## 1
Amino acid sequence: MDALQFLANSKPLRSPRPLYVLAGSDRFLKRLVLERLLTRLTGEDGIDWSRSFYTGDSEHLPEVLSEMQTPALWGTRRLIVVDDADPFVSRYRETLEKLVSHAVSAVLILLVDKWASNTRLAKALPSDAVLICEPPRPKQLISWCLARSETQHGKKITTEAAELLVELTGGDLGLLEQELAKLAVYVGSRQRITPQDVDCLVARNRVQTVWEILEALGRGEMGAALAILNRLLDRGEEPLAILAALGWQLRKVAQVAHLLSHGSSENQALMRVGLQPWQRERVWRLVQRLGRRALRLYDWLLQTDLHIKSTHLSPRATLEMFLTRLLPPPAPVGQSSEATARV
């Protein structure tokens, strides 16, 4: 079952499964799902739960299985959570298979990064006991923002504002939650969060600073661009939020470059992308500087996003490497950079 589908339901679970698996790479989404699962499990009247929490490297893991099969005292039921449980699953797979097929007086919740669907254990579990916690798609994120803003923060956010917020945060659920909380405070007694609110609180300062980075690169000043980037990181800006703001601008550059490569004029391309008059000069300057390399911006943005989320390189180093890709190479002697950068 998809994690967001599970989160949309708050009814108590009347017939709990003996084993639940929260599988995927999005740790913030896992935390939300775990909180909702615990609430739905313990929301049933007349039943008390004894809770235990372990990590996958805990020396007490053998006790988990014993605890699963030991009746709790005074009519309570046991609820056991194991985080980082991939090694636990590998080591005790056969025992877990037996637990799934027998009635026990406990519920075991495993948080894992990977979950192979072709194993006997996976096939023994019903679909509603395996909750997939992978990064949601943009449309799912927008729907999540609309619901989360109202249920968690007491404010309605317009669809346009949610779309802008998702674009600016790069689709990271943790960042979205932080920004929704700040927006709820920002609007005060007003009940609606508008695109203008998102622009003022989330976009304006970050995007303006990102433009300073891009303009420094357009002038060939890598040192200045890196200094601005490091200033953003040092004041606590999230790397994914910085990349999202960069992407918001660079996707417009890529769109213009694509239209130019298919025969559009400068004015036609800038107008079709929907740029405001004050944006056109900035974007056109970057299109000229990047030349045909602007057609590769989508790939570079995607690669950088994946590297920040999954590689051993620090986010700072990953962003610095991304910026070095954007700096146009020096023009040959006797030839202007504009001549070499023509799309």
Note: The two ends are 46 Å apart (CA to CA).
## 2
Amino acid sequence: MVNRPSFVLLLASLVLVTAAKAQRTDDSPPWRKGMFFASVGGSWKAKEYRVKNTLRWSIDPQVAFFVNDWLSVGLGGTFGFDEFNYTETNVITGITRSNLQEGRWWGLGPTIRGHLGSSKFGLFAQLSAHFGELEKNTENNFTDLDDTYLREQGSFQMYTFSPGAAYYFSPKFGAEVMAHAWWTLADVRSGNVTDNGQVEQFNSARYDATGGGWSVNLIYFFSLAQGADQ
């Protein structure tokens, strides 16, 4: 039986190979060998409940070079923030319980993308890896109603498969919609934050997680060779 990571890699390989073997038509896409593209996009998600609310956003820039007419390699980044806020007051005792969590992360790594398309529409599949740092701060009063401050810090590696579709407004500009399936591994150290702001390290752990989502990007095609992108 094929497991999920193997299936994702197989699907990604098939899309990239198909893209690499495709032939150009008269309705040529806005890219070709020797050109670059730069893109930036991200995602934002917020939810509000009776006693809690959540917020998560990320920005994901990328610069890549076309090694042939249908395959690009490049460098991508991810920068993000998330927040969880829980507050509930017991109407009988009048005691308020609260839990505030704020996290942030950043990472950089290689990307490879296979492209198919015409002058107006495109399809692509991308494999990427990000390596970076993360931090999460927690404040709550769950223990004897005393405020407790906890900090988690560490490093992570994230591997992502991202198929997508694009619409090109002109030979240089376009917009993309991407779906993401990712796997993350993180090594984290955690400890209580003292009154003077120091962290008393007492625990280390390794976590892994899988997930998915989607994002919207703007993309720009260009060339460093004079007259090449005319």
Note: Residues 4-222 form a domain with the Porin fold (CATH 2.40.160).
## 3
Amino acid sequence: MINSTWWVGTAFGAALTGVLLSPAIFPVNLGWRLTFALGAILGLGILLVRRFVPESPRWLMMHGRFDEADQVVSEIEQKVMHEGKLDKLPEPEGKLSIRPQGTVTFGQIAKTMIKTYPKRSLLGFSLMIGQAFLYNAITFSYGLIFTTFMKVPNSSVPFYMIAFAIGNIVGPLTLGRLFDTVGRRKMISSTYIISGVLFAITGWLFAQGILNALTLTICWSIVFFFASSGASSAYLTVSEIFPLETRAMAIAFFYAIGTAVGGSLTPLFFGFLIQTHSTWIVFYGFLLGAVLMVAAGIVAIFFGIDAEGKSLENIAQPLSAEGDQSSQQEEAGSLPGSKNASLQ
């Protein structure tokens, strides 16, 4: 659900763009500068907020900062007990002994993804490429499609984007909890396949000339009601199905590859399609995006991980774990001469 807040910013940005870029309100040479300035102000705000966000205790332990990790966990426990009016919390289930390794090399990351978890890597690539193509196909060509085929004035396009953004917000807010109750595999595969099928149907209706600006916006909002949940789950998936030490790099790695393969050339590709002024040629581009989404959904059916309700250590054993601890041990041992930490 957190990932969907990106679209809250998009909705506000679209609304402000409609005002700031209106020549009737601001001069042309001033409006776009104000728009960029607002972005910079928001960026500075994020830097300030980050100072009050506690570091991950898992990350701290993996890097040998045990006292800081213990302090963060203690603060969280105290807050939970205070808000829940509890005298004590349940005892942790099991222990895991680790030997902190510090920085993980790219070689270790590549070996982990390709050799140890090849099926999970295929899953990550499929999900990222599918959502990257679909989103870049629409977000970067949205205005061109509306101005070229629907004859919508440039000044009105941002207001259609607001409705589109709302669909992207409501989807994860409505379906997000089902990824923990119904299950990751079922929800990821279904959101990808449903959005792919609906995207193909919308493309066909567009090619037939049945849709106008309003109905196309409604159709896309419905498509991305599901697609936004699926795209959010792609980031969730690659962050939790690999060992703890590789989480940050896994997100960056799969995002970079997925965007490079599925998204980097998509705006240029659709720009060429739209220049033909043929709705059928544009439809074939939409159809390609639909196929990629459905294919990713099928991959999720076979290679998806049932990660709901499980700790990250149970989904993928940390690289720094000592010995074979695929199952939780009752007691965590210590190796002579090593400084161990116990994740509880």
Note: Residues 213-240 form the longest helix (28 residues).
